[in-house]
């Protein structure tokens, strides 16, 4: 029957607090502001790990041995190349759409040339997964080069995941320090439990669809301003504010008009997001390095005002607040901030999909029915 549940039943708007899966991938303590991947605190990974090692940890459940990491890194490098027809298609795509839409097209397109495309997520898809994670940066960089009329820069097998992306984007090798900062940003964005985009990927995979379809669902979900799309809007807001002395008026006006301040608040964290803390340090560092404190000063002023006004409600900066300032200094165009989030999070999406389908059950929640009990069908010529 189409009718959903009626009568007394617990209902959680936005599925808040609902446990929808068992997972050993990451844990968030929202009241203490702690995040661990497979038990390892994010601060340790930011200090000692890199994206490739973190990706291995998330996918396989433990840190790799030296040899396993070398093999994994090599596999990622080999998989960076796109099928020729996907590359040609990216060159031909119009320059105006949001790059998140391009990314959906490119991930869907690669599936068409994959001999294993009909294999569902449950059938040992690890090499497909690694291929997608490795290809997403190439898709983003190629599209950006093509839309700006520049030659495409093929991946450089001598460079790691983070440095290679900056290289393909800018056409010159990044300095080591900036490549490392970007690498840490990718580690910080790699995984975050059952956030909306990960859940979207899991819902798709739970029907035993294929991994590309699951990733396309996730990209479409991450795009929204309440999720990954917030980082781009933070920079827009900083530009609108212009100078730190205008921040107070801007924030108070926005709050009085019930508008959201992008980069603040989180469903799980009711205190400072530990990822934002690390990214803020890098934003400070880069602002000083480039002697351009315009954005960081406005950002810090907004943070103070928001914590003063809404801290008691558990509203603090989230990962998206300072990441944009960091990316800006790394020369990443603003509309690529969310694609860069997708590039990092692709491993979290894949890890959850692979974990969930091992003990799969199709996701199928119910809606609490609020419509009428019975309505007579009125023939069309008798309707008013
Ligand atoms: N600015 C102003 N007020 C806010 C904000 C904000 N950024 N976030 C939450 N609130 C208020 C909200 O108005 C509500 O107040 P009241 O109880 O008086 O109605 C209360 O806090 C709870 O908000 P909610 O919408 O019920 O909280 P949620 O858990 O459903 O939403 C959120 C979480 C992230 C969507 C929300 O905090 C938000 O819209 N933030 C701005 C967008 C943003 O920065 N998104 C990135 C999230 S972190 C990275 C990621 O996952 O992508």
Topology:
Blueprint: E1 26-29, E2 34-37, E3 40-41, H1 42-48, H2 51-60, H3 66-79, H4 84-92, H5 99-112, H6 126-147, H7 161-170, H8 176-189, H9 196-206, H10 211-222, H11 230-241, H12 247-256, H13 274-289, H14 294-310, H15 319-329, H16 337-358
Antiparallel strand pairs: 1-2, 2-3
This protein binds carboxymethyl coenzyme *A (CMC).
The molecules bound to the chains, other than polymers, are: carboxymethyl coenzyme *A
Spatially, the strands of the biggest sheet line up as: 1-2-3
CATH topology of the largest domain: Citrate Synthase, domain 1
CATH architecture identity of the largest domain: Orthogonal Bundle
Spans of 5+ residues with little confidence (pLDDT < 50)?
none
Query: What Rg, in angstroms, do the CA atoms define?
Result: 22 Å
Class inferred from helices and paired strands:
mainly alpha
Q: How would you describe what is shown here?
A:
- The protein is mainly α.
- The chain has two domains: 26-223 and 336-357, Citrate Synthase, domain 1, CATH 1.10.580; 230-329, Cytochrome P450-Terp, domain 2 (Cytochrome p450-Terp, domain 2).
- Helices cover 55% and strands 3% of the residues.
- It contains 16 helices and three strands.
- A three-stranded antiparallel sheet has the order 1-2-3.
- Strand 1 and strand 2 (34-37) form a beta hairpin.
- Helix 8 (176-189) runs antiparallel to helix 15 and helix 13 (274-289) runs parallel beside helix 15.
- The mean pLDDT is 95.
């Amino acid at each position: 029957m189409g009718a959903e549940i009626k009568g007394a039943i617990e209902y959680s708007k936005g599925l808040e607090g609902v446990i929808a899966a068992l997972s050993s991938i990451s844990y968030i303590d929202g009241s203490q502001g702690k995040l661990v991947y497979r038990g390892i605190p994010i601060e340790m990974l930011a200090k000692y790990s890199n994206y490739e090692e973190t990706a291995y940890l998330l996918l396989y459940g433990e840190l790799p041995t030296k040899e396993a990491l070398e093999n994994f890194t090599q596999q990622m490098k080999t998989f960076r190349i796109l099928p020729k027809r996907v590359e040609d298609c990216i060159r031909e795509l119009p320059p105006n759409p949001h790059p998140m839409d391009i990314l959906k097209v490119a991930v869907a397109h690669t599936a068409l040339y994959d001999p294993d495309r009909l294999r569902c997520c449950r059938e040992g898809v690890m090499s497909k997964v690694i291929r997608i994670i490795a290809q997403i940066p190439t898709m983003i960089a190629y599209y950006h080069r093509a839309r700006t009329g520049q030659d495409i820069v093929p991946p450089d097998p001598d460079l790691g995941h983070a440095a290679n992306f900056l290289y393909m984007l800018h056409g010159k090798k990044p300095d080591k320090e900036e490549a490392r900062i970007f690498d840490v940003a990718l580690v910080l964005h790699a995984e975050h439990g059952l956030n909306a985009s990960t859940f979207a990927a899991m819902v798709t995979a739970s029907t035993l669809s294929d991994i590309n379809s699951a990733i396309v669902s996730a990209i479409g979900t991450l795009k929204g301003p309440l999720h990954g799309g917030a980082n781009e809007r933070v920079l827009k807001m900083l530009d609108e504010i212009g100078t730190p002395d205008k921040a107070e008026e801007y924030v108070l006006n926005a709050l009085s008009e019930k508008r959201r301040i992008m980069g603040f608040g989180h469903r799980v964290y009711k205190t400072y997001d530990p990822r934002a803390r690390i990214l803020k340090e890098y934003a400070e560092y880069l602002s000083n390095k480039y002697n351009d404190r315009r954005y960081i000063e406005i950002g810090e002023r907004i943070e103070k005002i928001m914590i003063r006004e809404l801290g008691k409600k558990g509203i603090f900066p989230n990962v998206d607040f300072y990441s944009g300032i960091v990316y800006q200094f790394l020369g990443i165009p603003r509309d690529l901030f969310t694609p860069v989030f997708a590039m990092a999070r692709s491993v979290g999406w894949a890890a959850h999909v692979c974990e969930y389908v091992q003990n799969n059950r199709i996701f199928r929640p119910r809606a609490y029915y609020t419509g009428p009990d019975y309505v007579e069908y009125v023939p069309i010529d008798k309707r008013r």
